[in-house]
Write a structure and sequence with these properties.
about 15% helix, mainly beta, AOC barrel-like, disordered N terminus
Length: about 180
């Protein structure tokens, strides 16, 4: 338990150092700084048939956010996202949108919005826009390509006709450009 607490503190310190470097570089340079990140997440939601050949999925997902560095991934806190997807039942094509909040170990937060398109059960790709933050993330904006790749699904039909869905997967942010306003 003591080792786990120490490891979390070291990871938090490493993240704080990394964000401080990125933030100071973003402030010192005219252009945005770029990085990659990912989160291993669990998603829980409901599926409702919303038209003759359409389903709507409303979901919440969350997990640990990792920042990719030259030395490997560094834990960057927790992320929680909400979303709604519309699925064409004939083609399985889906489009969706939602919002995310990430919380660093020191309580600093970022807020973002996403939208994506893809195929049900395979995932989707789209745009993530960082709209703001609090604490040391106050005044930052950014944008990235966001990718959702589920890897396991559990479906449970309910008496009212809805279906509960539990899934695990990975959220990936590629070429995340971070900039101080």
């Amino acid at each position: 338990m003591i080792f786990k607490s120490l490891a979390r503190r070291l990871a938090g310190a490493a993240l704080l150092l990394w964000v401080s470097v990125v933030a100071s570089q973003a402030h010192a340079q005219d252009g945005p700084q770029s990085f990659n990140a990912f989160a291993v997440v669990k998603a829980d939601g409901s599926i409702l048939r919303s038209a003759e050949r359409q389903a709507t999925i409303v979901t919440a997902l969350g997990g640990t956010l990792f920042i990719e560095t030259d030395e490997g991934p560094v834990a960057g806190g927790q992320i929680a996202c909400s979303g709604m997807l519309r699925v064409d039942l004939d083609t399985t094509h889906q489009t969706g949108s939602g919002a995310c909040t990430s919380t660093a170990d020191d309580g600093a937060k970022t807020y973002g919005e996403w939208e994506c398109a893809g195929f049900n059960m395979l995932g989707c790709r789209g745009t993530y826009k960082l709209t703001g933050g609090s604490g040391r993330f106050a005044g930052f904006t950014g944008q990235a390509t966001v990718i959702w790749r589920p890897n396991a699904h559990e479906l449970q039909k309910q008496l009212d006709g809805t279906v509960l869905q539990n899934a695990t997967g990975i959220l990936i942010w590629r070429d995340f450009k971070l900039e101080k306003k």
